[in-house]
Design goal:
The complex is a heterodimer of chains A (309) and B (493).
Chain A lengths: L2 H6 L2 E6 L3 E4 L5 H20 L4 E2 L2 E2 L6 E7 L5 E7 L2 H25 L2 H6 L1 H18 L1 H4 L24 H10 L1 E5 L8 H14 L6 H12 L4 H5 L30 H14 L1 E6 L8 H16 L3
Antiparallel strand pairs in A: 1-2, 3-4, 5-6, 7-8
Chain B lengths: L40 H19 L15 E4 L4 E4 L2 E3 L4 H22 L2 H6 L1 H17 L2 H9 L4 H27 L4 H10 L4 H21 L1 H7 L1 H7 L7 E5 L1 H5 L14 H6 L10 H4 L20 H13 L6 E5 H4 L14 H22 L4 E7 L6 E2 L5 E11 L5 E8 L6 E2 L6 E3 L4 E10 L1 H6 L2 E8 L7 E6 L8
Helix pairs in contact in B: 2-16, 4-6, 4-8, 6-8
Classes of the chains: A alpha+beta (309), B alpha+beta (493).
Chain lengths: 309, 493
């Protein structure tokens, strides 16, 4: 401290080493009062909010409770009133948000499918709520955006619907799940006939094939092999059975588009016909999602993703 | 060139950063300032600004306005629906650029004006000045003129002192409260807020805002007053560095006031101007009125000081005294440093012919022109079309290529609007809007819809862009066209 300053500001009165002094610069009053206010604030806080630990418990706060609706594991709801805490605060806020969202779910639930799809405002809700529901529940198999994966899950963005693409059918698929399979023909048909029938299948959708073999395959398809029983005489499939339409460009279980050579494509079809398929399992969502959630998902899949046709 | 002595605390030669007898300690004890009232053109101008500003601030939220999509209030900053209503102008969050430009303009205007006539903002327009002024008027009204107020402060806490000081502070708190309430009324429907507020049903944030504003208004205008300008306000400090040598500022003409022998009070032998001139004394009769009327409590005769808010009240005070003693007016006046120190002083006048003033002026004109243009050319409808990227495209069973789009429509009008969506460059039938016959968007609302475009394989290969045309039914001429990408199989390889 300079000598000049020591003269103008009072000191504690202690002097060391002849002239070393300690200044007493008092804190400004506004600062002191702000400090006192924080102390008063903290005391009010202790009284109103959970604060002090007492053994294994703690002070709960006075006159500051939160009431919220809690849903138990068995599905029943109960009103709970607790002292103020962050978890209850979150619950009560979620209650409020859910109540707000429920208005829209109720509106969709009370409106027939066709009417919802004609209402831009309701479709705006379907777009956003459906996207969240889809991402949470469907995207693990059908992929983000519903593109699906060949050999694993159907593409929901295109216009191919194995079990039908109407609102009713989509709702049925989500609610009850699906169990798609195709029997193995290895042993039922000899290898050369498997190849012939595979050539015929490729010919149906205009893929490269051996015309002569395809002609022989035609007969096997309709008679000996019994393929037409499920896939139909024209090979167009049957949505009631979930049998695939073999005449379109769409492939789910045989990765024909993924192969660049004719041999490769043929190989894929032969593999499927001989080995069969038992992976076409769509889980049941009936008990896991609420009916109105399934309705929103149906609308989302039908109008925002695939277009139902 | 800037004058180094602007930073000095007094007319001496030492800078305030040194330890001088005048050096203010770190925490200065507050000496209450009791200003003397004064009459004159500057006081009248200040009062006029005060009346206009208060009228606008306090009446505006109560002005009704016809609206369909919100409460009928002429000026309302609706934070809940994220819309600001300013008469017929409705602004949305995406119009934030207007606000930023407005702030740029305000800043440039401050620099522009400060370069010309100093801290005009501080002296006449700043809300700290306005509210302090009103609170000083309240004190003057209840407690009387400066000497009476000083006398009151020296009294013991008797009934008179308690009553007078108590009632003036009560009035100040009342004004502060109404200030806080009016501020809150800008953010919600004012009559509803009035009802809810006093029946205990208003939102917590309304009570918080009003209490906070009441407290700060009372603290800043009623108690802290000039300390806000001197210790807290950043503008006060940086405006000083924008002074030029030609800037007109409230100045004391030391040459005329001091003379060769300094200022002196009129006493025997120094009563007439001739006597004073003969003895080398200046025109300043050292009455101290310029100090007594100063809201920041400074002595303008010490030269330019950072505490001076340039309110001109000392000019009024000095002119009144000069009139009464029969000397010419203008001992304290608006004048520039250059002119005051010039060997050939002229009548003070604005000097604007320099690069800084012209530069700020030009930038102001450009910015204001942009703002007016942007506001005038605002669209009633906003449309964004975004391609769905998951997946970019999909091949349909008949070989067609499908792209999907999210169309976001914002209806910024005051009425419900119906939109039709069409495509250009590709066949009309390629567009699929699902079952939506039309898109009905409520006033001030927005919607997201999904659109699909299906193109034949050959056409898809040659199509890289499509154009969406979104047409509002009530104003077909204001159709919005948006060009977006179209992806096909050519990108797959």
């Amino acid at each position: 401290m300079s000598q000049d300053k020591a003269k103008s500001v009072s000191t504690t009165g202690h002097v060391w080493d002849e002239n070393l002094q300690e200044l007493t610069n008092p804190l400004p009053m506004w600062w002191v009062w702000t400090f006192y206010l924080t102390i008063i604030f903290s005391i009010i806080y202790w009284i109103m909010y959970p604060a002090w630990p007492i053994g294994t418990s703690y002070t709960k706060g006075v006159g500051n409770t939160i009431t919220y609706t809690n849903k138990k594991v068995d599905g029943s709801e109960e009103q709970k009133t607790t002292h103020w805490n962050m978890r209850s605060k979150l619950m009560s806020e979620m209650n409020a948000h859910n109540a707000e969202q429920k208005q829209w779910f109720d509106k969709v639930a009370a409106t027939p499918y066709e009417e919802v799809s004609k209402n831009a405002e309701l479709m705006n809700f379907v777009n956003s709520a459906g996207k969240t529901l889809f991402s949470d529940n469907c995207a693990p198999c059908h992929q983000a955006g519903g593109v699906g994966k060949i050999g694993f899950s159907p593409n929901l963005v295109d216009d191919v619907w194995i079990y039908g693409g109407t609102y009713e059918k989509i709702q049925e698929t989500i609610t009850g799940g699906r169990n798609g399979m195709m029997p193995a023909f290895k042993g039922v048909l000899p290898d050369d006939k498997l190849k012939q029938v595979a050539n015929y299948v490729l010919s149906l959708s205009g893929e490269p094939h051996d015309a002569e073999a395809a002609k022989a395959g035609d007969a096997i398809f309709h008679n000996e092999g019994g393929c037409a029983v499920c896939h139909g005489a024209e090979g167009k499939g049957n949505p009631d059975l979930g049998s695939a339409n073999l005449t379109d460009k769409n492939w789910l279980w045989a990765n024909v588009p993924g192969q660049s050579t004719a041999e490769g494509k043929l190989d894929e079809v032969v593999k499927l016909v001989s080995g069969g398929m038992s992976r076409g399992k769509m889980p049941v969502w009936g008990g896991r999602l609420k009916p109105e959630q399934i309705k929103v998902l149906t609308l989302y899949v039908h109008d925002s993703l695939g277009g139902g046709k | 060139m800037r004058y180094p002595h602007i930073l000095k605390i007094d007319g001496g030669t030492e800078s305030m950063t040194h330890d001088t007898p005048d050096h203010s300690p770190l925490y200065q004890k507050h000496i209450p300032i009791h200003t003397r009232s004064v009459k004159g053109p500057f006081r009248n101008f200040k009062t006029l600004v005060l009346i206009v500003a208060f009228a606008v601030f306090f009446i505006l939220p109560w002005l009704p306005w016809e609206r369909h999509s919100a409460a009928g209030q002429a000026v309302m900053f609706d934070l809940v629906t994220r819309r600001f209503f300013i008469f017929d102008l409705v602004t949305y969050p995406q119009d934030i650029f207007w606000l930023s430009m407005l702030l740029f303009i305000a800043a440039a205007f401050l620099f522009f004006v400060t370069g010309l006539i100093g801290r005009a903002w501080c002296g006449y327009f700043c809300f700290q000045t306005l509210w302090s002024d009103v609170f000083i008027m309240i004190e003057h009204w209840i407690q009387g003129e400066r000497p009476a107020r000083l006398r009151l402060r020296k009294q013991p806490w008797n009934a008179e002192r308690i009553l007078k000081i108590g009632s003036s502070h009560f009035l100040m708190i009342l004004v502060s409260f109404w200030t806080g309430f009016t501020f809150a009324a800008y953010f919600t429907y004012a009559p509803q807020l009035f009802h809810d507020f006093f029946t205990g049903h208003a939102a917590d944030v309304a009570y918080f805002t009003v209490i906070l504003l009441t407290a700060t208004t009372y603290m800043c205008g009623g108690i802290a007053r000039e300390q806000i300008c001197i210790y807290m306000c950043p503008y006060a400090r940086f405006q000083s560095v924008m002074y030029e040598k030609d800037t007109l500022a409230v100045s004391y003409d030391a040459r005329r006031g001091e003379g060769a022998a300094g200022r002196v009070a009129p006493k025997e032998g120094l009563r007439t101007r001739e006597d004073r001139v003969a003895k080398g004394h200046g025109d300043c009769i050292d009455c101290g009125f310029c100090v007594q009327v100063c809201p920041t409590g400074i002595d303008i005769r010490k030269g330019m000081q950072y505490q001076c808010i340039s309110c001109g009240l000392c000019i009024d005070a000095c002119n009144n005294i000069m009139d009464s003693v029969g000397y010419p007016r203008g001992l304290i006046r608006y004048d520039s440093e250059a002119n005051l120190h010039s060997d050939t002083p002229t009548k003070p006048h604005l000097k604007w012919k320099n690069l800084k003033v012209i530069g700020y002026g030009a930038s102001l004109v450009i910015m204001m022109a942009w703002l007016v243009w942007a506001v005038a050319h605002r669209t009633a409808v906003e449309v964004r079309v975004q391609q769905v990227r998951q997946p970019l495209y999909v091949v349909l069973s008949d070989g067609k290529v499908r792209n999907r789009y999210q169309i976001h429509i914002v209806n910024k009008t005051e009425h419900e609007e119906v939109f039709t969506v069409k495509v250009e460059d590709v066949p009309e039938s390629a567009l699929d809007l699902g079952n939506l016959p039309e898109i009905r968007v409520r006033a001030g609302k927005d919607l997201n819809i999904t659109a699909k475009i299906d193109l034949e394989h050959e056409l898809a290969e040659h199509t890289h862009e499509v154009r969406f045309v979104v047409t509002p039914h009530s104003k077909p001429e204001e159709a919005v066209v948006r060009e977006v990408n179209f992806h096909g199989q050519q990108e797959a390889h």
